[in-house]
Amino acid sequence: MKIFLDTANLDELKKGAAWGVVDGVTTNPSLIAKEGRPMAEQIRMICDIVDGDISAEVVSTETREMVREGRELARIHKNIVVKCPLTRDGIRATKALSGDGIRVNVTLCFSSAQALLAAKAGAYIISPFVGRLDDIGWTGMELIRGITTIYKNYGYKTQVLAASLRSPTHVIDSATAGAAIATMPFKVLDMLFNHPLTDKGLEQFLQDYHKAFQESPVAG
Ligand code: E4P
What we know:
Helix content: 40-55%
Bound molecules: erythose-4-phosphate
Number of domains: 1
Strand content: 15-25%
Number of strands: 8
Largest sheet: 8 strands, parallel, barrel
Number of helices: 11
Radius of gyration: 20 Å
Distance between the termini: 40 Å
Shape: globular
CATH class: Alpha Beta
CATH topology: TIM Barrel
């Protein structure tokens, strides 16, 4: 499974990229707005940090404008994936942009029916939002399971990107459900490292070694 960071914050992206486990980035208009720079400028800086798919979202709501904006975003860098919302206009824009060879991530997906439409329109990625479904008392992970099954049944190439993930459990459940990609906030990626037995085990190993040799492990 590919791991994407769901942030537009450059410091977080630099830290994540340095770990060597980040395959791409997702952004949305809210995340871009938080960083205070215009979309194109911020996206360009993100492309300099992470070498992988970088999702940049259109802010128009009408097909023709979305297509125009999508083409502009795609020109920023070869790694750009244009994000379109799962609306009627967004699906029409997805079909048009995909026809031009531009990769589209269809976002704000909350049902398998919507995911089916995105695949039929030629989406490169579908983004079902797990956490936001959990927030309204549904089981968001069931959506990931449903979409992966439907896509497998019919051989759709659209990649399932589990979005709106809020915890390591969400990440692991997405992997178990067969999502191609999981995008997560930096805080969640950082949490994936943690296990108390790793800390305890390392402390014991180093203590034993130092006690036996009374020297630092790197000394010759
Ligand atoms: C995905 O591409 C979205 O940007 C994101 O995962 C939304 O997450 P949220 O529901 O935590 O805002």
